[in-house]
Amino acid sequence: MKRNPLRTQKIAFSFLLFSTLLIVLPVGFIVAEIIIKGLPAINWQYLSDMPRQGMRAGGILPAIVGTLYLVSGAIIFALPIGVLAAIYLSEYAKDNLRNRMIKLSIVNLSGVPSVVYGLFGLALFVVFFKFGVSILSGSLTLGIMILPIIITASREALEAVPQSFREVSLSLGASKWQTIRNIVLPNAISGILTGTILGLGRAAGETAPILFTVAAFYLPRLPKSIFDQAMALPYHLYVISTQVPNVDEKIRYGTAFVLLVMVLFMNLVAIIIRSQFRKKKKW
Amino acid sequence: MRKIKEFIIEKLILLCGLASVFFVVLIFIFLIKEGLALFRVVSPLDFLFGKSWYPISEPAQLGILPLILGSLLVTFGAALISVPIGVGCAIYIAEVAPGKIKELLKVGIELLAAIPSVVIGFIGMVTLVPLVKNVFHLPTGLTALSGSIMLAFMAMPTIVSIAEDALYAVPKSYREGAFALGATHWQTIWRVSLPAASSGILAAVMLGIGRVIGETMAVMMITGNAAVIPQSILQPVRTLTATIAAEMGEAVVGSEHYFALFAIGVVLFVISFIINVSADLFLHRNK
User: Fold this and answer.
1) Do B111 and A267 lie within an 8 Å CB cutoff?
2) A69 pairs with which residues across the strands?
3) Do A237 and B118 touch (CB under 8 A)?
4) Cβ atoms within 10 Å of A211's Cβ, excluding its own
5) FRET label pair with B120: which of A91, A107, B60, B172, CA 20 to 30 Å apart?
6) Is B276–A111 a contact, with Cβ atoms under 8 angstroms apart?
7) Which residues in B lie closer than 8 A to residue A133 (C-beta atoms)?
8) Do B23 and A105 touch (CB under 8 A)?
9) Residues 6+ apart with CB under 8 A from B214
């Protein structure tokens, strides 16, 4: 019997649709499960109170605050370095060995397992620089981890600015740096913003890099300085789901809900900024 | 004056450009510095191929073969699930899905990539683990299989988005040529688009696998963490990453155990280095 190409196509396309559904449906289930079971746990007290009774009651305020501190620290460190590195790659770099090394390093940084960042942070910041287990050590570790995200997104945004913009500015007598600052950067700002927010989301959700550099198991007060330990949302979720027995399921789902909403919200904002920008693009 | 300012700024930009190289080298140096200290007491061969991992017994036995096999088993299982599904989904998005659905799916995949691994681990613990336990009548659902299934979901977004980019990069004229010769849509995909995008798809698969090998939190929460040489996929296993994450908290700084965990870090760093460099070669071969 000769094979009917149209029937083969039908079978193949159903398989493709099936694999797509195999991804989409479980993901929908994960998000729905966390929202349905986590939302009832959320109230003002849960968000604004200290954990009590060995984390079996009370709220998650120190974990939220700790994560906000860590994420801000990471971005303060990574944003300037990342944007300047992107400027270098898009505006200055020629295709030579040094720049191939740089690109290769960025690829590598983005592939290093998160727990290896944790080891590195422990060896360099906690032990070698003697920052101790602190917000500073954790922020710097997370900052290095999100560097490739910021560089890649910013570089794409900078490279998307048409060459003619630069030429006009240079022909009017502006210097290279003036051109970059006044012409290239303002036109790339939304792409840089997208990368920054994606980096924030990644830093907020990662657990392994902060395990040995900052995370406190149970610390029912707010951190006092950047040399203080801190609780953090992802680590808190890990702790109450595996290390502490008899935690009410509602409290676990509540923590998962807050973390998931925080991370997905940042990613959605980044996606929206990007698509708005693509629509409005003037060139 | 302005010239001096420009000079300083340009040097600063160059310095930041080189920062990534600096950090990669720094990471490697610090892993090596602590990791190599182990080999004063354990030979590298005994470390890599030693069959038992009892880091706190007297004398400590620091063989990571069970951990390597644990990582391989979980990764292999996750690849088996995520590669066909991920590539299938990428083809659907790139070639078949109509405009609006395509955009929606791409956003969905991006959001899946954003779900923190600890949340994936948590969901696996409360839903999949009891399910595996009941379906296979096991004493515990914390098995390599559960780990593979959840990790497949972490590999899929990487595979889908990179494979989709590779398919998107295939020139339109290739497809038009195939259509003009009377090929069906599927024949075009199968005989033209897929072969043209093959090196990008290979890179996607490799990066997906790299993501699974390096994944830590989810795997630590659902694979049961038994450091024994795995006999079946329905057994608890322990991976390289989970070992570091679970034990570094208790290891005394400067002890054999501490150095051994750094040596595992070196192994992971080298694996991820090889995977990423070769995937990058594949990605740029077709340009």
Assistant:
1) yes
2) none
3) yes
4) 28
5) A107
6) yes
7) none
8) yes
9) A111, A112, A113, A114, A115, A116, B241, B268, B272
Distance from CA of A73 to the nearest CA of B (A): 18
Alpha helices in A39-175 (DSSP H): 44-48, 61-87, 97-111, 114-121, 135-159, 163-171
Token readout for B111 is 């959001």
Distance from the Cα of A118 to chain B's closest Cα (Å) equals: 8
DSSP class per residue in A84-106: HHHHIIIII--SSHHHHHHHHHH
Residue in B240, B55, B221, B22 with CA at minimum distance from that of residue B127: B221
Amino acid letter, residue B116 = P
> How big is the CA angle at A115 (ends A111 and A121), to the nearest 5 degrees?
100
Structural tokens at position A142: 């997370």
pLDDT mean for each 10 residues of chain B (287 residues)? 86 93 95 91 89 84 92 95 96 92 91 93 93 91 93 94 93 93 92 94 94 92 87 91 91 89 95 92 73
Q: What are the start-end ranges of the H helices in B43-143? A: 44-49, 65-91, 99-114, 117-123, 129-135
What would the two tokens of residue A75 be?
A: 């971005």
Check whether the bond before B59 is cis (ω within 30° of 0): yes
User: 0.90 cut: is pTM over it?
Assistant: yes
Residue B91: closest C-alpha in chain A: A16
C-alpha distances out from residue A128 to A123, A226, B253, Å: 6, 17, 11
Report the DSSP beta bridge partners of residue A237. none
A238/B92 CB distance under 8 A: no
Question: Per the CB < 8 Å rule, is B114 touching A205?
Answer: yes
Assembly ipTM: 0.91
The minimal CB distance from A113 to the residues B112, B115, B241 is found for B241
Q: For residue A282, what pLDDT is reported?
A: 64
**Residue A164: phi, psi to the nearest 5?**
-60, -35
Contacts of A109 in chain B (CB under 8 A): 20, 23-24
Residue B102 distance to chain A (closest CA, Å) = 11
Please work out, in degrees rounded to the nearest 5, the angle formed at the alpha carbon of residue A188 by the alpha carbons of B93 and B207. 40
